[in-house]
Amino acid sequence: MATSVDELALTRRQHWVNHVARHAFERGNLVALKCRDRAVTWAELQRRVVALAGALARRGIGPGDRVALLMGNRPEYIETLVAVNRLGAIAVPVNSRLSAAEVAFILDDSGASLLFVDSATGQVGSAAAGAIGHPVPVVEVTEHAATTVGTAAAYEDVLAEDGVAATAADVSEDSPALIMYTSGTTGSPKGAVLTHRNLAAQCATLLTAFGFRMNDEVNLCASPLFHIGAIGSTAPALMVGATIVILPTGAFDAGEVLEILERERVTTVFLVPTQWQAVCEEQERAPRDLSGLRVTSWGAAPASDVLLRRMSKVFPSSWNVALFGQTEMSGVTCVLEGKDALRKLGSVGRPAPGVWARVVDPDMVDVAPGEVGEIVYRGPSTTLGYWNNPTATAEAFSGGWFHSGDLVRVDDEGFWYVVDRVKDMIISGGENIYCAEVENVLAGHPNVAEVSIIGRVDERWGETPVAVVVLKDRRRALSIEDLRAWASDELAGYKLPTALEIVDRLPRNASGKVTKGVLRDRFSLARPAPRVDSSPPRAGQQSPSGIGEQTDQSPMR
User: Fold this and answer.
1) Residues 140-156: pLDDT tens digits?
2) Cα angle vertex 64, ends 164, 118, to 5°?
3) Ligase: present as a keyword of the record (predicted)?
């Protein structure tokens, strides 16, 4: 059959819509996605993507429309991302652990026209969709005969609808693919707009860093697919036709992960340091055959020297690669190669190919090697800006470079070391916690006069949030349990403080700003924070900040 000019033009586009279609054409019977005992071939993935895109088109979704995804890890997540982009629409991944109020803000701010949920997020998603000023129909992925939300359409029923397949849009590489929401110091989430070209740049970085091979790669996606780290590792796997093994959302089980690595002959995997700690312990206790594992990668939080040396011992034949970056840069900006993992302990590596990076002072003057400055970026992976937020965009790109908020120093070999975070962000078990967002909520408590959030060192989770509070009435007791219960409707469980410190006043500088350095000096190494669960109990272990070890797999935010 002759190929039309339009079809020929479409194949020139470089994005995952075309990658999936190409693999279905060339190697349709091979496995694209695996999750537990379910395997999806490339041909089946393409068929389901086309069917879903048709159903979305019949619901009025077209170029530029936003479709939100509030789901845990599952094959349908990737199907939906590709189907939305096939129409030229924009996918909006949403943290599946947010409260209804937090989800509603994102739906409203992005102007989402449709919301995908699963059985675990259906109630929260439905409540969020009903709380905003414009209608947002809900589609639910469920393993049961009926949805958990009566008004939701069942995902498989949507795919099975009769109707003409929607024509694939000619999606330019410079058009938005994703809006990834990340909180800021003001407490209001901002939607970083990432294009298909941004994702292609991320592909180039990871293909180089991991040394992806043609046709025989198996990548374990062990991190939440609503994070740029997971999406960033999915993009190159889709490009080269790797099998993506998806770890379902839930409490992290090191034994289960090792069994998957052995059974599926996984070649590349990213885990956060706390996960690697548990995996090393389990592998030492009960060794598995991991001879297929080429790359062990980590990020999202600092890894101790002890852990890195342990990983080298437990996985001697694997290439240990450290990744560093952030959402606005489409993922990875710096890579520490395996050959330097132990030689340059504490470093995040050097800028990845294609990333323009400088270390500057507040006046945008480059600092000398060894001096501390802020990383600023340019390049093909850089976000277009923040959705519907020109003020934040202008601030972020002041001076013509994207300001990361990370303070670093560079050694005489060009290796970068992060020394602090300009925005006082806390990373707990790989999840980013922004102090101002938490402070804004806690400040509304009837007995809180002032509050400041800082991170407390935790041996297992890196950091946990601590609330330093000035009471309105010291005669009225305030406990950490009271504070968490009061804020639980407004904040995701992992953002709730795990400890409370009562002070007479907060230290401030001459301009009236709280000097958090003074608070960190006093409280960050204080008595161990109480082990408080901050989310409804689930099977398996939970972190003190409510994070099952299924967490963000890269230092993106």
Assistant:
1) 999 877 888 888 999 99
2) 70
3) yes
